[in-house]
Write a structure and sequence with these properties.
16% strand; two-stranded antiparallel ribbon; alpha+beta
Length: 145
């Protein structure tokens, strides 16, 4: 019989340090949006506080919400972005719309997230997917390497 701890026990270190999400030539190291990632909870409270009334009343615009969430993720969820060059070498950086790679920074990550809302939606789903941070998933990955 499966133990509840095997089914739901998460790797607290991975929740904070992140797991890699691979999109081919670009990969993201993302922490969990919740769980042991206390930095996310604290940053979330601080980011939404000035907008609490608008959020409660349902008057926060989509553009404002997108900006807040992009800043929140750049600050507390996305730990690294790496891009593979033609030679197959990975390096830290953020791709741009014109095919260049700029230095990894808070601003470059926010811009990327706002430029590619569908990718951002996927990253948000991954960051809240507890299965990405389960202890047993990590153990299985280790056995397969």
């Amino acid at each position: 019989m499966n133990s509840l701890y095997k089914m739901f026990g998460t790797d607290k270190a991975a929740e904070k340090a992140g797991v890699w999400i691979d999109y081919g030539d670009v990969k993201f190291l993302i922490a969990r949006a919740g769980g042991a990632n206390i930095a996310f909870a604290e940053a979330y409270k601080a980011k939404v506080k000035p907008f609490r009334r608008q959020i409660d009343m349902g008057t926060l615009s989509k553009a404002q919400d997108d900006q807040i969430m992009a800043e929140l993720y750049a600050e507390s969820i996305i730990k690294s972005v790496e891009v593979k060059d033609e030679a197959g070498t990975w390096s830290k950086g953020v791709p741009t719309a014109d095919g260049k790679v700029v230095a990894y920074s808070y601003d470059s990550v926010v811009t990327l997230l706002l430029d590619l809302p569908d990718m951002f939606a996927d990253l948000r789903a991954m960051a809240t997917d507890t299965t990405k941070y389960l202890r047993q998933a990590e153990e299985a990955d280790t056995k397969n390497s």
